[in-house]
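Issue 218. Parser rejects a valid record. Input:
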Amino acid sequence: MFNMLLIILKRKRYTIIASVVAVAFASISYYLTVNSIYHKSIFVFAEMNGSLFTIVTLTLGAVIAILLGFHIALLVFRRDIIKSRAMGDKVSSVGGATAGILASGCPSCGAPLLGLVGLPLGLVSLPFKGIELKLLSIILLSLAIFIVTKNIRKNLVCQPH
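Output the parser choked on:
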């Protein structure tokens, strides 16, 4: 998986796509986490939630942004190179990207989303104040990246010459 990702990212176009998506998503995540909720101060966020929680939240947000950038670059590569796509791969790709988007920002921003699936007080029952959602997002994005790279490898090997 990592070898295929490195090969694809050696092409300037896909590196730019991954970088732009990662920076844009990280900026949106930071804005949702700090600027719009905590009066535009990372220090207020840290004071309200603790330093460790702030560091973990921002780090996981950065990891999600990077993985989402990789994922989008892989999808563009697959679209450019491979014409046939399996339905299962589409579902996993959409699921991983959706989880990454939903887990961005602060956990309280995702609370209304839990209400849509019947868990309006879901964050109250989570022991780590919603960091679990970010970890789930990382797992789903990693799985989606794995499936897309596997699909790319399979279709590149199976293409007629």
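Fixed in the parser; the record now loads. The chain has one domain: 2-158.
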